[in-house]
Amino acid sequence: MPQYVDVLWIMNVAAVIIMIGVLVHFLSKKEKRETKDRIFIALLIAVMMTALPEIVYAVIKAGSGFNMIYSICETWLMTFIEHVSCMFMAVWLFFLAGYGRAFRKYRLLFIAPLAAELIYSVLTIAMMIRLFDSTDSFWSFMTNLSYVLYFVGLAYIVVSLIMLWRIDKALMILPVILTAVLILFDIIYGSAYSRPMLMALVVLYLYMSMKKQQLLVHIGGIMLILFTVITLFIGNAVTSAAFSSYLKTLHDRNDEHLKDVENMMESYEALPWLIDYWTDNAASVRFNLENRSESTVLFNVDLKSVSSDEASLMDDNMQLQFATACYKRIDDVFVDEYETYDLDDLFLIIRYSDDDAVKLFDAEKNPDGTYGLGDDFDVYSESFEWGNYETEVSEATHWTWGRYSEDDDFGFYRKLPESLSGKEALLCNSFKRSEIYAHMDYISSFRLEAMGYLIVVAAIILMVLYYMILRPLSFMSSTMKRYRHDKDEKAVKTDMARISQHDEIGAFANDFTSLTGEMKRYTEEVAHLAKESERVATELRMAADIQIKALPSVFPAFPENSEFDIYAHMTPAKEVGGDFYDFFMTDERHLAFLMADVSDKGVPAALFMMSAKNLINYRAQEGGTPGQILTAANEQLCKNNQTKMFATVWMGILDLDTGVITCANAGHERPAVSDKDGGFSLIPKDDHGPAIGVLPGITYIDYEITLSQKESIFLYTDGVPEAKNGAGDFYGAQQMILDLADIEEGSPKWIIENLTEQIDTYVQDAEQFDDMTMLCLKYYGDDVTDSH
Amino acid sequence: MIQKTADNDKLTVVIDGVLDTHTSPVLTEELEGALDDVKTLILDFEKVPYISSAGVRAILLLQQTMDRQGSMTLINVNDEIMELFDTIGFLNVVTIEKKG
Fold first, then answer.
1. What percent of chain A has pLDDT over 90?
2. Average pLDDT over chain A, rounded to whole?
3. Nearest CA of chain B to the CA of A625: how many Å?
4. Cα–Cα distances in angstroms (integers) from residue A146 to residues A56, A79, A128, A237, in the given order
5. Would you kindly state where each structural domain of chain A is located, as residue ranges?
6. B88–A648 C-beta distance less than 8 A
7. What is the interface pTM, i.e. ipTM, of the complex?
8. Of A106, A212, A126, residue with least CA distance to A167
9. What CA–CA distance (Å, rounded) separates A233 from A215?
10. Could you tell me the residue ranges of all domains in chain B?
């Protein structure tokens, strides 16, 4: 496997495969696609286009050593396609989302950055194929331009997103997340290298949000952010630690060699004198070294044991020979140490100031084979940094070590004791930074691996979450949804039994199962009650029907009698009520008629009404005055009337020959009587008894009303004056009398129908709670001229 | 709508609102268990603007109970209700004191 095919590369490829998979799956859906779906597809394509250069780059990097393609890919292909695809992303978004018109309106926004990008690309390619020389200033111009263009690209995306926001806010959310994450990662990594992987995560995110796996999406999102941060911190910590320890290892190793050399040098007793001499007479010593063999100046003394004082007493030639011999011996040790341990560097310099130093020893000879003795040591041109061990270690961070180029040397030094040299003599050795970089490459791949492992861990956590919580939850959710439609609690029970977890989820499933069971019982109960109440309502309707049919309702009621005309009407309220009227002939010349109102409403009132009506009717057939009839009926009704149900009754018996009405009142509203002119008025307060049914032993007193020809009597129940309008105001007996008087003279039917109309106008749509019952009797006597 | 104040064997009931088919059962229920040791029942009609025949029946039922164990008086009854009791003819059955 090529070395560039690393974890990240594999993940990138996997990412693209995921995206393609999702796209294929999505496109194979048969249902009609909505705008949201089109946007999703657009995003997916755009994202894949962004990922494409990464893959191309990785493939070329892995498979080819051809520098040209490599550089083009690195500097041009990546940035260009990246930008264009970013722009395409927005364009696709507009186009596919069905907002073509909105896009055309802003097409300049699309063309401008594309043109800039093209110009930049042409310039870059021209430079690559050496159409003109690249200078430093040109390079920095190009670099700045690329940054500008990159931010233009980002700005373009932001503008596109703002457009989307203006078109439809909901369209914004996904691209915003995408862009934010992209920018964040670009900032963190300084490159788009991990983009495809990220894209795949974003795509999965989008896909899952469309599949309604919202919880997984949220947890996944949070984990993505957390793991990124953790990876960054761990990565930096690992890098710093590795860098420090590696640097220390290098330092310790090299320091050993320097110590060896130092010890060796210190064994020369005349070292201070020698250093002075080498420094002052560098040219002579060098000449002597390079042109004379050592044998000509052979000393039979131990060079190391000669003291500085003894050396200073020698004559000039002896001094030169001695210094040369010592230099040669020491230089040999330098070379030996350098070659044995394969050091990068080993030399000794005398430093006068930071930028002024002279070389004394150098294990590496000059290219022409001459010694480096006395050469100026230029800190800057040698790319040599005065490596302060402590500082370097403390700066050993990801950011710091990435700052230097790989060709820079990194040097350590060991200062010879001042007493030995009298000058600042630095024993130096260095190593290439590339050595550290090689080591760091390993560290950085370790970091990527760690990231990979973290992602795997995240995936495992998400999977566990999915299987333990989210899948059963969404399963329950869909079960509930289905249950809402089909109310099939048996299916729920079967389904929920499949969730066999013994935890909160399992408990929830059980709770839901028992809830549906209770729902079923409750529903059945409600259905039963509804049926029951329906039955009761039906019976009540029938009861009301029977009650109404018990009242005479065929008009004209007595077509054979021209002496009078009678009409009555009841407007029932919602419930079965207690009003009733009745009229019948007690003999050929007498008409009994009555109006009654039973206290309260409902079935008990209706029963009481039927019984009262029948009692009065039967008793009336036996003859007697209304007073006697009511007295008798009262006695009967009072028996066992524990409920204190009562009825107010006004009853009259008309003598057809005379127009005299013998009447009695048991707590009922007084009737209104008309005169010849049609004006109505309530009769004066009568001598009435209490309502029947409550007080036994009452004797009702008769009184008389005489109707002249064409005069009428009008009976009613309290439902009429107590008819309410929308504001809650009563119609009132006063108004009733006025309205009656306003009605043109006519038959009883005419009068009642007109009055009903008046009342309807008054109450409008207001619901009435009491029956309204009216009865009107008009007396004609023997006047046949205006008979009905 | 019903406020009860007990004082030994005297119970004062202040009724607030109309007494009709819907509200009368409430009055009956409220007082059903409260009348056991009551000798004097005062029904304050100060805040009753209107009473229907169902209300009258509820009063009659209370009257029937109180006839067995003491007395009942309606106080602060307005003119309309007085007239109703007059019309129905129960002025002699129930003890009523007019408003004011």
1. 15
2. 75
3. 20
4. 20, 8, 15, 32
5. 7-201, 249-437, 487-549, 550-779
6. yes
7. 0.87
8. A106
9. 27
10. 2-98
Query: Cα dihedral sign for A163, A166, A171, A174?
Result: positive
CATH 3.30.40.10 fits A550-779, yes or no: no
Residues 6+ apart with CB under 8 A from A6: A445, A448
Residue (of A537, A473, A535) closest to A509 by Cα position: A473
Q: Please tell me the predicted confidence (pLDDT) of residue A368.
A: 74
* Helix (H) and strand (E) counts in chain B: 3, 5
Residues 6+ apart with CB under 8 A from A677: none
Cα–Cα distance for residue pair A626/A592, rounded to 1 Å: 8
pLDDT (tens digit, 9 = 90+) per residue, A733-781? 889 998 988 888 888 999 999 999 999 999 888 887 788 899 999 998 8
Q: Are A212 and A474 in contact (CB under 8 A)?
A: yes
Average pLDDT on A328-339 reads 87
Closest to B89 (Cβ–Cβ): which among A578, A644, A691?
A691
Rounded CA separation A48/A27 (Å): 15
Nearest Cα residue in chain A from B92 = A690
Angle of helix A316-340 versus helix A214-266 axis, rounded to 10: 150
pLDDT for the residue A634:
93
- CATH architecture, range B2-98: 2-Layer Sandwich (3.30)
On whether the pTM is more than 0.80, the answer is: no
Would you list which residues of chain B are within 8 Å, Cβ to Cβ, of chain A?
Answer: 20-21, 24, 52-54, 56-57, 60-61, 64, 87-90, 92-93
Does residue A770 sit at the B interface (CB-CB below 8 Å)? yes
Strand, helix or coil for residue A385: coil
H or E, element range at A776: strand A772-779
CATH 2.30.29 describes domain A7-201: no
The structure tokens listed for A680 are: 């109505």
CA distance A550 to A579: 12
| Poorest-pLDDT segment among A146-160, A221-235, A250-264, A314-328 | A146-160
